[in-house]
Design goal:
- This protein has five helices and no strands.
- It is mainly alpha-helical and 119 residues long.
Length: 119
């Protein structure tokens, strides 16, 4: 049930991002969903590591359900492909590289933020 609830909320947030961040030359909705989801997942993983007594349903609710529904690697790939199809190969490469780099930054920042609070 936790996965279903988290997935429904994540899908609604993802759809809302799509409505708010109208895609122009950069796929902002997918970019924001992927970076934000990575940050949330990193914070959750660090919290669970520092506080193993947290409720067992948090991982399926947030990590599997919410973040799994919010983020989309397939969307990133499709948008990069469409950029290349439209003759914007340079933008597609930048989009993929920046998404990966900022995803790594978000993961490290989330982990470090939780570690700073717990040390």
């Amino acid at each position: 049930m936790a996965i279903v609830i988290g997935g429904a909320v994540g899908a609604l947030v993802r759809a809302g991002l799509g409505e708010v961040a109208h895609t122009g030359t950069w796929p902002w909705a997918t970019f924001a969903a992927n970076i934000g989801g990575t940050l949330i997942l990193a914070v959750l993983a660090a919290l669970i590591a520092y506080r193993p007594h947290l409720p067992h349903w948090l991982h399926p609710l947030i990590a599997v359900g919410f973040c799994g529904s919010l983020t989309t690697f397939a969307g990133l790939q499709m948008e990069a492909f469409l950029m290349m199809r439209d003759g914007r190969s340079d933008a597609a490469v930048v989009y993929v590289l920046v998404s990966i780099a900022l995803g790594l930054v978000a993961a490290v920042a989330g982990r470090r933020a939780v570690a700073a609070v717990h040390t």
